[in-house]
Amino acid sequence: MLTRIDHIGIACFDLDKTVEFYRATYGFEVYHSEINEEQGVREAMLRINGTDDGGATYLQLLEPVREDSPVGKWLAKNGEGVHHVAFGTADVDADAADIRDKGVRVLYEEPRRGSMGSRITFLHPKDCHGILTELVTSAPPAPSDPPGGHPAP
Ligand code: CMX
Ligand code: CO
User: Fold this and answer.
1) Ligand having the closest approach to the CA of 87
2) How far, CA to CA in Å, does 141 sit from each of 7, 36, 91, 101?
3) Whose C-alpha lies nearest to ligand 1, atom 47?
4) For residue 149, is it within any domain?
């Protein structure tokens, strides 16, 4: 069951400048950052709020590390903006299977590694009314994690 908006993925040309915009304009700080080579992105997660399923909602700022990556190709075509919407679930495998049975293309056979050790998959935007849609199961929280159920930065 999808229980929250986990994050909104936002494509940008310059991650550092975009992070600074969100900090200076709204006061949002970077909660976590990493390079995900497989996805071809350098990313910063800005934690916006906790959610009543024990998780949280983030903005995921994405800078491509390769021009031929999904975000690199999308930026070249569209410029900066909202790239995808991600829903959180306790069981990405079950939800992806259910959604595949409904005839929506799920892009990965098995979920892959996403931000902060999560497991992620994507639904094809052409089957989702133009929205590239991600499904996310967060990594289980470590005992030392702060409230919100996510690994510390
Ligand atoms: N949102 C909406 N539509 C999109 C889109 C997006 N983000 N990306 C591509 N499309 C559309 C294109 O506009 C194009 O439409 P038209 O045929 O009408 O022009 C069509 O989909 C095909 O686009 P493309 O540029 O040829 O791109 P590909 O088919 O090579 O790839 C996709 C599209 C969705 C398969 C690819 O982007 C993908 O695998 N995405 C999942 C992985 C990903 O996005 N990783 C980065 C984020 C990582 C993270 O969140 O952690
Ligand atoms: Co994402």
Assistant:
1) 2
2) 18, 20, 15, 31
3) 39
4) no
For residues 10 and 34, give the distance between their C-alpha atoms in angstroms, rounded to a whole number. Answer: 15
Give the count of domains, the chain.
1
In a domain, 35, yes or no: yes
Q: What is the pLDDT of residues 28-85, one digit of tens each?
A: 999 999 999 999 999 999 999 999 999 999 999 999 999 999 999 999 999 999 999 9
Classify burial at 128, counting beta carbons within 10 Å of its beta carbon; exposed 0-12, middle 13-18, buried 19 or more.
middle
- Structural domain includes residue 106: yes
Residue pLDDT, tens place only, 85-125 = 999 999 999 999 999 999 999 999 999 999 999 999 999 99
- CATH number of the domain within which 56 lies: 3.10.180.10
Between the CA of 11 and the centroid of ligand 2 the distance, in Å, is 10
- The catalytic residue positions are 7, 43, 60, 84, 134
10: containing domain: 2-137
Taking phi over 0 as left and psi of -120 to 50 as alpha, with beta for the rest, 41 belongs to: beta
